[in-house]
Amino acid sequence: MIELLRNRRSIRKYTDKVIEPEKIEILKEAVLRSPSSRGIDPWEFIFVDNRELLKQLALCKPHGASFLEGAALGIGICAEVKKSDVWVEDCSIASILVQMVAQSIGLGSCWIQIRNRNFNEQMNSEDYIRKLLNIPDGLKVESIIALGYPAEKKEPVPRENLKYEKVRINCY
Ligand SMILES: Cc1cc2nc3c(=O)[nH]c(=O)nc-3n(C[C@H](O)[C@H](O)[C@H](O)COP(=O)(O)O)c2cc1C
Q1: CA triplet 85, 87, 88: central angle to 5 degrees?
Q2: pTM > 0.90: yes or no
Q3: Distance 38 CA to ligand 1 centre (A)
Q4: Residue 160 lies in a domain
Q5: Mean pLDDT within 84-106
Q6: Residue whose CA is closest, atom 11 of ligand 1?
Q7: How many domains does the chain have?
Q8: Whose CA is nearest to atom 9 of ligand 1?
Q9: Residue 163 belongs to some domain of the structure
């Protein structure tokens, strides 16, 4: 796991290669194995591989989502908010875990923040996506994870760049 973390970077450029069904199954397993507070599992996941939908989803906010158009897959990570007061944490854990598992099977990925983001001045990104993917009102959308085979290579962050001053021992 630490080796995966050492090499982890956000990948926003993808090849045209389709993700094999066995790998899609692994990604499904990864999100479903994510731990959630009190084991409530408030999340719901929407796997989007339809090219037209990916193109529309890429427009969900003015910045930071356009690369979804070139992704092989987008995973919408949502939660039924009434089920848990910590759904943001639960969705975030599923988001990062699926990114790490994706990396472990040769895929690149990038988190696209949806919660608290806007499509335009009139509509938030969540409602734009809700309409597009037919998401019921009780669900909130935390993120979309864009995935695909990497078409860019990024260097790992060197150890000397880590902000060790942010780690304190025993008290602040
Ligand atoms: C909570 C969260 C939200 C993020 N939202 C976006 C986003 O909307 N669009 C994007 O391109 N990258 C997004 N990222 C990726 C970060 O920009 C990226 O992790 C950061 O710049 C560090 O780069 P690295 O992942 O390559 O180490 C997000 C990452 C996190 C953890």
Answers
A1: 115
A2: yes
A3: 28
A4: no
A5: 98
A6: 64
A7: 1
A8: 64
A9: no
